[in-house]
Request: fold
Amino acid sequence: MSMAQEKLDQWFGQLPRNDDTPRPVEEQALRDFLTGGTNVDDTAERLNSAVADAPDAEDKLYEIWRVVDQAAEDLPDTQEKLIALLTTLKNLPDLTIRGQPVEVYNDRRVWKDLPLLAEDIRTQWECKWEHLAYHAPCKLYLALCMP
Reply:
């Protein structure tokens, strides 16, 4: 096992859990993607299905963005892959349930607007703006999120 693989395994192993239930779909999808087990299109589709199948799309988006944001912060070597994933998600057709577009948080569309992601980034990384200004992948990552 490579050093990068070990680091990813260790990182995913330390994510908080409430009980012994299986890892949420978003964590497993991201893990598979970052470790090379799936491609970006399959990962985006898994995340799309997770939101479509969730009782509350907004809650599921928060869960997805929590893992993505934490990976971007803790695993800087994965940022290019995360940017590719966000770009792919942003280019998915609008999520619909029973023929109606799903809108969350001030009528923003899932996926085109990447709702709640920019807000989560601002909250999570508020104290690190100076740091982000010097990292091109972070700037692109943030640019993808801004409405």
Summary: The CA atoms of residues 17 and 44 lie 23 Å apart. The chain has a mean pLDDT of 76. Strands lie at 96-97, 100-101, 103-104, 108-109.
